[in-house]
Design a protein that fits this description.
The complex is a heterodimer of chains A (267) and B (354). With 267 residues, chain A is mainly alpha-helical. In chain A, 84% of the residues lie in helices and 3% in strands. Chain A has one domain (51-266): MetI-like fold (Orthogonal Bundle). In chain A, strands 1-2 form a two-stranded antiparallel sheet. Chain A starts with a helix and ends with a helix. Chain B has 354 residues and is α+β, with helices and mostly antiparallel strands. A 6-stranded mixed beta sheet of chain B has the order 6-7-8-3-9-10, with helices on both faces. Chain B has a 5-stranded antiparallel beta sheet with strand order 13-12-11-14-20. Chain B has a 5-stranded antiparallel beta sheet with strand order 15-19-16-17-18, with no helix packed on it. The chains are: A mainly alpha (267), B alpha+beta (354). The complex binds adenosine-5'-triphosphate and magnesium ion (MG).
Chain lengths: 267, 354
Amino acid sequence: MMKTRILFGLQLVFTLLVAAFLIVPALLSMVAGVTVNYFRGIRSGVTLDWIGQVWTLYADTIGRSFEVALATLLVTLLIGIPAAYALHRRGGRFSRVVEEIITLPIAIPGLATALALILTYGGFGDFRRSWLFILAGHVIFTLPFMVRAVMAVFATIDVKTLDESAASLGASPWRRFRDVIVPNAKPGVLAGALMVVTLSLGEFNLTWMLHTPLTKTLPVGLADSYASMRLEIASAYTLIFFVMIIPLLVAMQMIGDSTRLMTGRKS
Amino acid sequence: MTEVQGVSVHLQACAKTFPDGTRALEAVSLDVARGETMVFLGPSGCGKTTTLRIIAGLERPDAGGRVLFDGEDVTHLPIERRKVGMVFQSYALFPNMSVAENIGYSLKIRGIDRAERAARVAELMALTGIGGLENRSIDQLSGGQRQRVALARAVAMRPRVLLLDEPLTALDASLRERLRAELNRLLRSLGITAVYVTHDQAEAMALGDRIVVMRSGAIAQIGTPREIYFEPANRFVAEFVGAANILEAEAGEGFLALRGGRLPIGGSAKAVKGNVVAMVRPEAVTFVAPEGALLTGRVETVSFIGDRLRCTVVGVSERPLSIDAPNTISVSPGDQVGLSIDPDAVRLFPKESA
Ligand SMILES: Nc1ncnc2c1ncn2[C@@H]1O[C@H](COP(=O)(O)OP(=O)(O)OP(=O)(O)O)[C@@H](O)[C@H]1O
Ligand SMILES: [Mg+2]
């Protein structure tokens, strides 16, 4: 009895320490973003000036990041759901090989992927210079997350029989996909979508290699500001990034919970 | 009974070999008449579901096989264009739709307008006894309710043939019995052509106008429930459908020579001579006084199972003989008994049809 309580206490302290270790730097950084002079500390006063400056300097990167993230989402939805369905239906070794191949970009460094893209498509000047080049990189990087999330849901429901029963009721392959397959894959699609958006917003490696001065995204701009601006501006930038990304992370967690509940009830 | 709906179904030399080489079905030919309920009965893995899926259009028969609906060749029509209704063992209801949306889905696909759809759905829900559940979601339904939704959904667009794959297997015994009766009433009142797959012989007997008994991918016998029960074509059918005593004996002069005496055989079987395999149902055997009886033996076990006594008697044939006796008589293990068997109830098979 006593022993379990001590054990619990120790675990709690350990957890809090780890959490503090991870959270304190983030908090400090955010606080720095609203401090008048970081070296004099918070006593120097609180200000939104830095945030204002970030906005005037980097608003375009923020906008572009959202543009890229939404476009990435759209493309991964359009490719990822049908791909996941096809891989699930086909099954067997071929599907596993394909799945491994599309998962590869997660494992290999973003720089390598970017280099490969530049080597292959660098010659297409207009494409190279446009934000679509970054979009291509992001799609390659995030697609496996969408495909896997959707496939995970397919594995828990009997999609083959659902598809057959819709067919017996007269539905064409397209209607079956639209009316039955996609709606029942919704938890996976949602989880995958949030994952894709979050990853795309925060992606740095690939993007840094792929960007041009005119196609900076938020994380690239962030690196820029760390290198060349006052610490307070870089920190304010971080603050903006946090404010954008935290709601997405929370939503992701909530969806994760609700799908776990759903599948838990089924099994 | 209402007017007969649906088509006749003709399978012509439909064999099925799966891509992995499994030979699920030998070339099978059979006819299902308009409005008839045909039951496929057989042990697990004998090809019932495969045959049903060939009729549905979910599997293609091997080259040479043909499926005809009212004479029209539908072999190459995909299921969505065959206009069949199907009830799956797992029901396969759409979790993303309400009960009413599930039932009305086939009507929606066919572009039937909302008002007409609602009316038809209401009619079907009343017919299947699930009125009031239209807005429920699927996971709020009991097993029996799901079964009814699946059935209502399958018949909503008045299919040419209704296909049911073990629709009651997922339910517990008492519910199964009740739904079986309900299903029977529904099939008769719809007058629809139906093909019903089961491995439960009681279900097959109760529902089938005719029964196809299958064994390892081939048809063992097709007949009415009475024919299948009283005149099984071979030993497999006799043993699979109902309980059967199999007697291996010498036949001659209108008798079977058994260890426990002589068993008269009737009808055309009289002419048979030599080694035969005979079948007698347990309820065709009656106890008589041992004195002067043609067959005698000793009671080995007696179990009271409510509506009757199930006894075994040794010394009559090689194996103990099972007998179903009225629950009013009194016999006990060890009793010497005489047995009488109606000659017409003895069925002979050629020996090789093991
Ligand atoms: N897609 C498939 N690929 C390979 N073999 C299959 C496939 N579907 C069925 N089989 C095999 O074909 C044979 C017949 O299967 P089928 O499902 O028709 O049997 P069944 O009579 O319906 O049995 P049960 O009562 O168990 O449902 C079995 O040996 C089965 O393993
Ligand atoms: Mg089956």
